[in-house]
Amino acid sequence: MDTNPAEPPHDCPICPRLVEYRAANRIAHPDWFNAPVPGWGDPEAWLCIVGLAPGVTGANRTGRPFTGDHAGTLLYGTLAKFGLSRGVFDARVDDGLEPAGAYIANAVRCVPPANKPLPVEIHACRPFLSGSLAALPNLQVVIALGTIAHQSAAKALGAKLPKVPFGHGAVHRLHTGVTMIDSYHCSRLNTNTGRLTTAMFEDVFAKAVAARR
C-alpha cells in the first residue's frame, strides 16, 4: 500500500465501477500494474502536467503516467525539448527517464472503462490531485491536458470555473499565484486528426516557461 497521503492506496475502494474494472483487468492481465497510478516526477518541480486518467494499455499496464501508449510520445518528447527531463524516453518504467523541474499527475488515478470517468469518480479522486499539487513547494505553473483535467485542476487550485474557461493555449493567472495553461490532450485521436499538432503542444510549453517567475 502506498503510504503517501497524496495518493490512493493500491486497492483504493472509493469508486465501485473502477474497482470492478480494475479487478477484471487483474484477471485478464495479471502481469500489469492494474492499480491507481501515482503521480511521478521531480518533487521540486515548478511545473505540473495534469492529464485525464491512465490508459488501459499505457499507465494502467506500466504504472507510470503516460508510459506505454501513444500519448506519452509527444508529452515526453516535448519535455525533453524544453529541458524538463533527463535521459531518453523508451516507454518503459526502467528506461531511466527522469523529469527535471516537472511533475505529472492525472485527474483520475484509476483507469476508467472506455477512458471516460464519471463525474462522481472525478470528484472522488480530486483530493488526491489536490494533495499532489500541495506537495510541490515550488509549483508555479500547471498545464491541464483536456477539459476534465482543466476542470479538476482548477477546482483543486481553488479557482472558479466560470472565470477560467477551457481553451487550448489559454493562460489563467490564478489568485493563488499559480498560472494554469490549457492544452488539448496529447492523445492519439487528437494528434492523428490534427486537432493537436506538435507545434501547438510545444507552444503551450513555451507559454509555461514564459510564465515561470
Kindly describe this structure.
- The structure is a single chain.
- The protein has a single domain (16-211), classed as Uracil-DNA Glycosylase, subunit E.
- It is 34% helix and 14% strand.
- The chain has helices at 16-28, 59-62, 71-81, 119-134, 147-156, 188-192, 198-211; strands spanning 40-41, 47-51, 85-86, 98-99, 102-106, 141-145, 171-173, 179-183.
- The longest helix is centred in the middle third of the chain and has 16 residues, at 119-134.
- The chain is globular and about 45 Å long.
- Report the principal-axis shape: globular
**Helix-and-strand structural type:** alpha/beta
Mean pLDDT, rounded to whole units? 96
Supply the number of helical segments: 7
Largest sheet: 6 strands, mixed
Q: Please, what is the oligomeric state?
A: single chain
Low-pLDDT segments: none
Strand order of the largest sheet: 1-5-2-6-8-7
Span between N and C termini?
Answer: 37 Å
Order of helices and strands: HEEHHEEEHEHEEHH
For the CA atoms, what is the radius of gyration? 16 Å
Give the second-level CATH assignment, the architecture.
Answer: 3-Layer(aba) Sandwich
